[in-house]
Description:
Elements (H helix, E strand, L loop, with lengths): L2 H16 L8 H7 L3 E2 L4 E5 L8 E6 L7 E5 L4 E5 L4 E4 L14 E7 L2 E9 L11 E5 L7 E4 L17 E3 L7 E4 L5 E4 L7 E2 L14 E7 L2 E6 L11 E4 L6 E2 L11 E8 L4 E7 L10 E7 L4 E4 L7 E2 L5 E2 L2 E7 L7 E6 L8 E4 L7 E2 L5 E2 L23 E3 L7 E4 L4 E4 L4 E4 L9 E5 L8 E5 L3 E5 L18 E8 L2 E10 L5 E4 L7 E2 L11 E6 L6 E6 L5 E7 L7 E3 L9 E2 L7 E5 L4 E5 L7 E4 L9 E5 L7 E5 L3 E5 L7 E3 L4 E8 L9 E7 L5 E5 L6 E3 L14 E3 L7 E4 L5 E6 L1
Amino acid sequence: MSTSRLSRRAVLAGTATAALAAVPSLPGRAAAAEHTATSAPAYRWRNAVIGGTGFITGVLFHPSVRGLAYARTDIGGAYRWDDGAARWTPLTDHLGWDDWNLLGAEAMAVDPAYPDRLYLALGTYSQPWAGNGAVLRSEDRGATWTRTDLTVKLGANEDGRGTGERLLVDPRDSDTLWLGTRHNGLLKSTDRGASWVPATGFPANPSPSGQGVTLLVAAGRAVYAGWGDADGTTGSVNLYRTTDGKTWRPVPGQPTGTSAKVPIRAAYDRGTGALYVTYANAPGPNGQSDGSVHKLATSNGKWTDVTPVKPGGTTPDGSTDSFGYGGVAVDARCPGTVAVSTNNRWAAVDTLYRSTDGGRTWTSLKDSAVLDVSETPFLKWGADQPKFGWWIQALAVDPYDSKHIVYGTGATLYGTRDLKNWAPQIRGLEEASVVQLVSPPVGEAHLLSGLRDIGVMYHERLTASPSRGMAANPVFGSATGLAQAAGRPAYVVRTGWGDHGNGAYSNDGGQTWAPFKAQPDIAKSAPGPVATNADGSVLLWSFVHWDGTKYAAHRSADNGATWSEVSSFPKGATPVADPGDPALFYAYDSDTGTLYASTDSGVSFTARTTGLPSGDSQFKLVATPGRSGDLWLSTKWNGLHRSTDGGTTFTKVDSCWASYTLGFGKAANGAHYPAIYQVGATENITAVYRSDDEARTWVRINDDAHQWGWTGEVIIGDPRVYGRVYLATNGRGIQYGEFI
């Protein structure tokens, strides 16, 4: 995949939530609507398996417990490794809608002296519109938590998210913790994370760049802190040290220059007393073009440059081999054995280097690696063979098994037990950011999905990663549209960001694809949502740039061979096809609160209803399956509105006061109307609900342990299985619930 597509994750995964603010407290509404929600039969929630799919930013083996490890992600929370089951257990699914910003795990820490203790520093964005960070602390390895809200912001999905760890238990005192922040220097806690104050004696000023403290590491009884705002010149300081927990001083003799501008990660070899530090000229994961690895002999203060390969060479095809260095890990069982990773190395592809002599000589583990991605085939990215990885900043060596090494990438976590054969060690860890879901009424697959970063997938099973991997011909980086013809379900169309075309169709329900023969010029830079009418004879494609700029929609009546502009379609709106009448399309213009309709198969659109909610930051127009003209408008600030006359009139639905997304599934036994699923608020909380009586009453179907932060993108029921519902999350993949 290209650099541009991969870097988009930082933009797209954030902008979906960037406009969201916490829902204001509306106590009157909670009381008024309380009668509309009742208890539901118990639901079981699981992930529709894909496997990984996101940036693993940190991996940490516990130094005192065999088989215990933790992983953190940029937008999908933290996980604990269950060695007996060989799978990851999610630890932060209890975080709800109002806490969506805490699904990004900035840092984690364990206490070598108390194996059951775990600490997480959470906060996805440090921007003004995002909430402050928080520290979670656990005495039972993440099964339960105590929370402390911070007065500062963290940035788990911002530049530098693969550095660290920024959180550390002091090696001299288990009650003392250190937390490095991006904008507010170094914080200290003396009560095991219950309260935090600025660390006195830390000389670095608050960071203007948003990097601040990049790492904290214990070396014996000393603590080292990396600083990301040094300019790399002689005399600038990027590494500090304290030996008493009170006084911090620059580490003498530290490397300078472009290749050592930002300290990325550090690891201490207690067997030799060496501290290894990886550096780059930018925090990463993008933007690095230079880097180095240095070793500090902590006994005498001597620094040695042990960089395996200097960036800047030339690859066989003539490309410049530019990159930085990322992860570093030492072998607790074999003093002098250390592994480091390159990062942002696109020409020659990233690798791990391993040394058994303290960095004097190195071996590239990529050169002999055999990669087996049969469990998660999407990692081939539409090619014949997978690549070793990219964005490698998380790296760990099992302290109880020298040949067990794991490293994170922008999409998975690879592991080996023999230094040669590698496979994803990813079961249970699902981090997809999901934007489109379709549940076909017939066929092998009960689910099709459109995702950021990994395109479109055909889920022939919910319990295994799709065997076809990413939809090919063409491969998309991120999906923007996915639609099925209501009266011809074998016909499916998809749109998205891609280097070899931005739209495709399928005549077999999404199993195989062919690209549109042509596409509008704007499709390359602003692919948006797509719709197909009930019989699949017409396509409507809307165009929206990732920065929000809207363009005129286009129409095709020949399966994408030719396109014509539809000037009367509201720019940037999402086209919605009527499920019963092929001549009918709809579109809701949230800027003006106007419902538009077309009665000539999308050739022209006219306004049908004005005065609907406008300026709403979250909305969705949905057509009821099998019922022509039956429309629902779901809005964040104004709840639900329904039309049964094709949008000519709308009636406010009183059963909920906030609706973020809405979908339909198989009707309950004896019911004449499809089950309705909603993420919204009928009481004083935002939750997942089902209604079996046309939205007159609702039952909550998730619980406090299953909330997954922000879930406002899309929800749909299964048209063949009553009670089953599929829910898109922004960082915890596709959740599906069904009756226990």
